Amino acid sequence: MVIRSVANILLSNSLRTVSYNFKQAVEALSGLQSNAEYIRNHVKTNADDNSVKSITIKYLERSGLTLNDLDELSVIHVTGTKGKGTTCALCECILRRSGYRTGFFTSPHLIEVYERIRIDGEPLQRETFAKYFWKVFDELEHKKEHEYDMPHFFSFMTILAFHVFLNEKVDVTILEVGIGGEVDCTNIIRNTCVAGITSLGIDHTNLLGNSLKTIAWHKAGIFKKGCKAFTVPQDKRSMAVLNRRSLEKGCQLNIVKPLEEKISKVINTNMPLEIFRLNAGLAISLANAWVTFNGFPALQNYVVEKAIEKFNWQGRYEIVSINNSRFFMDGAHTSESLEICKDWYLKNTKFSSNIKVLVFNATGDRNVRQFLKILHKCHFQQVYLTPNVAVSKQMDDVKEPIQRCQVFKRAWEELERKTGFKADSISTCVDVSGAFRKILDNNVKKCDVLVTGSIHLVGAALNVINIRKTNDSS
């Protein structure tokens, strides 16, 4: 074990308290094993699934917390393939507007890493994030037994969130699963009051399997004995797995219907109505179940309706105007969600004479050919394939992602040969900034731009939009 003198540790900590440097925190985070690297290594080594949680517990305890400490949190745990972020965000909004102090852990972030941890609906301030970050990071760094003895990125962020929520004394913790459920880092918690499962689909097959049955098995891993469990309607095979798992775990599973149409009238969102109703129905059920579980007064209908009316979740079915062009952004990353995204875009551009433009990327082991086949039906006139990077600083950083984009370009050209419909141009770009520059500066006519395929791509796009707006106003 690396041993440091007490004097050095005290000096280091005293210097750290002088300036909780956010930039250095982000740099230190980037030095941890990334989620993509972790997934590749997990698959390559065929790691024991139980080891994921046991390793997370090891680092949790090194950071100064125990599972008994986590038992103090009152948790709503949510997983699923599609809509879990939206469901969590709306559930949080309802409970916050009902007077409860909320802690919300979500992933991934769109622009800044501190967006993942929220208190009362607001992301941590940079200074606050840095303060908590260095407290946990230094503790883990001091107790390393070898050079690489640190948690990977998502595991660290999960542990950090637990520290924040306990210190901030939240009434309720809304916890969004990273991947799967059964062996996810968030699933070390034991005091789950309410568990929810959103719509299931094929995703992360290298970790969860390539069938809905195996994926459903993993998702249902968040069920705990005695908790109130809910799911939206699923296909019969998935539903059978979820029911069987709920019996194994000792909880009753309830199927939630979509939000009633009479309440849907107050919806103020670009999201397709049927999707919002599905997620909102689950969110309301989770919030109601939590107050009931804890013996609190029932939620007021007017509060729920106000939460729905004011709800906004960035990067999901979002429309932003720049220089008279419209950018339609959604982080769809499964075949099912891309079908919905495609229909949403076509509906909103049906009577538009603007140039149709696609900005696309996809990551991981996803079926990109199927994704492109779905999107090709939009008959885009311009296609830009770009890494999930707002502004690239070094070509080496985007070399591999650009190679993937070139593969996507060949797949798109193959679709053109098969269907007979050709775009006017297909380009690979080194970053999103370069793609947007070509779209906004090179086109005389207005454009309707669809940005999709990855939530990370949408985050990079929002970052570029913020930069352009700042530059335009200065």
Automatic annotation (TrEMBL):
Tell me the GO BP annotations in alphabetical order. one-carbon metabolic process
What's the top EC group for this one? ligase
Q: How is the cofactor bound?
A: A monovalent cation.
Q: Does the UniProt entry include the keyword Metal-binding?
A: yes
Q: Where in the cell is it found?
A: Cytoplasm; Mitochondrion inner membrane; Mitochondrion matrix
Enzyme Commission number: 6.3.2.17
CC cofactor: a monovalent cation
Going by the UniProt record, its keywords in alphabetical order are: ATP-binding, Cytoplasm, Ligase, Magnesium, Membrane, Metal-binding, Mitochondrion, Mitochondrion inner membrane, Nucleotide-binding, One-carbon metabolism
Identify the metabolic or biological route this protein is part of: Cofactor biosynthesis; tetrahydrofolylpolyglutamate biosynthesis
> Which residues are ATP-binding?
R316, D330
**What GO cellular component entries does it have?**
cytosol; mitochondrial inner membrane; mitochondrial matrix
Write down the chemical reaction(s) this protein catalyses.
(6S)-5,6,7,8-tetrahydrofolyl-(gamma-L-Glu)(n) + L-glutamate + ATP = (6S)-5,6,7,8-tetrahydrofolyl-(gamma-L-Glu)(n+1) + ADP + phosphate + H(+)
Q: Which PANTHER family match?
A: FOLYLPOLYGLUTAMATE SYNTHASE, MITOCHONDRIAL (PTHR11136:SF5), FOLYLPOLYGLUTAMATE SYNTHASE-RELATED (PTHR11136)
Q: Which family does it belong to?
A: Belongs to the folylpolyglutamate synthase family.
Function of the protein:
Catalyzes conversion of folates to polyglutamate derivatives allowing concentration of folate compounds in the cell and the intracellular retention of these cofactors, which are important substrates for most of the folate-dependent enzymes that are involved in one-carbon transfer reactions involved in purine, pyrimidine and amino acid synthesis.
**Protein name according to UniProt:** Folylpolyglutamate synthase
The organism is Agrilus planipennis (Emerald ash borer)
Q: In the record, what lineage is assigned to the organism producing the protein?
A: Eukaryota, Metazoa, Ecdysozoa, Arthropoda, Hexapoda
